[in-house]
Predict the 3D structure of the following.
Amino acid sequence: MLMSYLGSIGTVMSGSGFSDALDICYGPNAVVHMISGKAFSRALRGYLLVDAAVTARFMSLVTSGCACTADVEDGSVTQHTDVVSVDELMSAFSSVWSNGCDSEGMAEADEALVALSTRLAEVKNKLLCKSRTAKLQCLYEMDTVKMFIRAERCGDWNLHLIAVTRMLNLFAAAVHFQYAKCARLYLQSMHQNQLPETHPWLHAQFEEHGFHAVRRSDRCWSGLWTDLVIEQE
């Protein structure tokens, strides 16, 4: 599913300069397979590099010394009173890293992150209004990719369903109709009380223990799974 989704991103972003950005780090033949999603490992690394580069560009706008966001068309600058500074972010990070998640450190981090999120949203909304490339929302799609990976690695069942839900529109837009149809049917069977009602024990293992995810090692998990099966029997 993730391979098809990466291919969908490449299809939708074709002609936007996305492949040119990948050409900087990868050869042209490799980029062709990365855009299709077939070269999965390279595609994932390359897409994350592009996402990091674009995000870093946005961060430079909202955390610059003059606290400004640049206008896309004429290069004018809009000043903001509530500036998001790098020092504030680093201070919040250092506080949480050193002292743990205490109430004071988390409050400081929350305030800085909320201000940062607000500024990033302003920049993105301005680009969405004035740039056709920005309307493709590559960053949103990459957030979905990272959400899906996190859900699988952490065994988070609910986050997994949310990530699959966010994939549906792009599958349809990229003409990956089989994945769009099957993913929708999958979500319907998982969401609409079918799994909890028909197989409540299995749903509990997915939701409480994250057994929907594939494990690369059977240590710890094999014994627990065996005990659960014996208990069910």
